Amino acid sequence: MTLKIALTKGRTEKQVLPLLQAAGINCDPIVNKGRQLIFNDDPDYHFILAKGPDVLTYLNRGAMDIGIVGSDILVEQQNPQYDMLDLNTGRCRFVLASTPDFDPSQTKRKIIATKYPLITQTYFEQIGEDVEIIKIEGSVELAPLVGLADAIVDIVETGTTLRENNLKVYAELQAVSTHLVVNRLALKQKRAAIYQLIAQLQKAQKSEV
Ligand code: PRP
């Protein structure tokens, strides 16, 4: 039975491929792919490469059985599918960051720029603060530098982007890692194959530790 897997392309893809290989899946065609987006040669596993938010769209519409995607996207999009396994790759964290002169205790209503409005809203509700949120699609670090926002909520992995743009962390929010998510109907129809894949991944995770 073929499992159809949507893999988040880019950083997530690069970090998770060694684990998939260690779990016995031949990922050589993906490693050497060029601009190819779909990989259907292996009878057991078909792969597509998609942007993170789109991975969930393919899963929600049943076009794919399995998604490999960051927990940032699962939380922000309120994932309705089964979150089956934390792959423990793609580890990073959400932070509140801004310029060195930012005062987190300022009483004026703050403007926060982010790619993740729901996660940002939830954080500020938890600390009892009402803020204005501006949705940005990328390079969020620009917003406080040019006066669009007072601060940002964004993902930090190595810290290089913040450092190189002279931004400081003011608060740590939640941790992020890559997860394996399964379409609800696919779990019923392809149960044995999906649990087999999860067992292989768990075994590979243990031997990597
Ligand atoms: C993410 C994130 C930061 C950067 C953090 O952006 O939004 O900008 O990575 O990584 P670092 O701590 O290792 O520097 P991404 O590269 O996905 O692109 P984007 O700016 O277009 O969102």
From TrEMBL:
Superkingdom of this entry's organism?
Bacteria
Give me the reactions it catalyses: 1-(5-phospho-beta-D-ribosyl)-ATP + diphosphate = 5-phospho-alpha-D-ribose 1-diphosphate + ATP
Q: In which pathway does it act?
A: Amino-acid biosynthesis; L-histidine biosynthesis; L-histidine from 5-phospho-alpha-D-ribose 1-diphosphate: step 1/9
| All residue ranges annotated as the ATP phosphoribosyltransferase catalytic domain in the record | 53-202
Please give the InterPro entries that the UniProt record associates with this protein.
ATP_PRibTrfase_cat, ATP_PRibTrfase_CS, ATP_PRibTrfase_HisG, ATP_PRibTrfase_HisG_short
Under Enzyme Commission nomenclature, its number is: 2.4.2.17
Q: Name one Pfam family in it.
A: HisG
Q: Give me the Gene Ontology terms describing cellular component.
A: cytoplasm
> Which key words tag this protein in UniProt?
Amino-acid biosynthesis, ATP-binding, Cytoplasm, Glycosyltransferase, Histidine biosynthesis, Nucleotide-binding, Transferase
Q: Where in the cell is it found?
A: Cytoplasm
Question: Gene3D superfamilies annotated for this entry?
Answer: Periplasmic binding protein-like II
An example GO BP is: L-histidine biosynthetic process
One GO molecular function term? Answer: ATP binding
Described purpose of this protein according to its UniProt entry: Catalyzes the condensation of ATP and 5-phosphoribose 1-diphosphate to form N'-(5'-phosphoribosyl)-ATP (PR-ATP). Has a crucial role in the pathway because the rate of histidine biosynthesis seems to be controlled primarily by regulation of HisG enzymatic activity.
What free text does the record give on domains? Lacks the C-terminal regulatory region which is replaced by HisZ.
Q: How does it assemble?
A: Heteromultimer composed of HisG and HisZ subunits.
Return the similarity comment: Belongs to the ATP phosphoribosyltransferase family. Short subfamily.
Name recorded for this polypeptide: ATP phosphoribosyltransferase
Organism this protein belongs to: Agrilactobacillus composti DSM 18527 = JCM 14202
